[in-house]
Amino acid sequence: MTDTKTQPNQTLVISSQPASINLVEKLVDDLRASLDLNEDMYGNMLVALTEAVTNAIYHGNKSDAGKMIHVKYAMTTEQITFSVTDEGPGFDFYDLPDPTAPENLEKPSGRGIFLMKHLADQIIFGDNGRTVEIIFNIHHS
Questions:
Q1: Most C-beta atoms within 10 A of its C-beta, which of 38, 71, 124, 141?
Q2: Hey, which bits of 16-112 come out as E strands?
């Protein structure tokens, strides 16, 4: 078995307001530096994580700044897993409209989860849709 040293979980707790996205971007920037991530991996992480937090702000917590979003991450030498949890009612993640369907192409929203699925190595919904885990296999530059 390969070396899979696990770093302790880290948690960022942010309020449900657009300015909180800056904290998430800083988190990914800091990880990029410490993990020596290549440009593609960094870009994928940044977009997928900011999409997840944006969904948590607007759809999960309905932009209620009094509701918190917990962004956790854990690392091994092979993977980094982000977990984004909101305080909203959840949603049916099995019943999502296809953003590539002709009737949805002009809609201004609805692409976040589609993007996350294509950018990450794996995404897993839990807690009735209140939590999404975004998993990346680490590729060093």
A1: 71
A2: 68-75, 79-85
The residue among 104, 92, 84 whose CA lies nearest residue 14 is 84
Whole-angstrom Cα distance, residue 15 to residue 30? 20
**Per-residue pLDDT, 90:** 93
Tokens of 81: 């897993």
- Helices 39-55, 112-119: crossing angle, 10 deg rounding: 150
What SS3 class is residue 34? helix
More reliable by pLDDT, 107 or 54: 54
Burial of 27 (0-12, 13-18, 19+ CB in 10 A): buried
Backbone angles phi, psi at 75, to 5 degrees: -130, 145
d(CA 69, CA 86): 5
Q: Print the SS3 string covering 30-87.
A: HHHHHHCECHHHHHHHHHHHHHHHHHHHHHHCCCCCCCEEEEEEEECCCEEEEEEECC
Q: How far apart are CA 136 and CA 124, in angstroms?
A: 12
Instruction: For residue range 37-75, list pLDDT tens digits in order.
Output: 899 999 999 999 999 999 999 999 999 999 999 999 999
Q: Identify whether the C-beta of residue 107 lies closer than 8 Å to the C-beta of residue 93.
A: no
Enumerate the β-bridge partners of residue 103: none
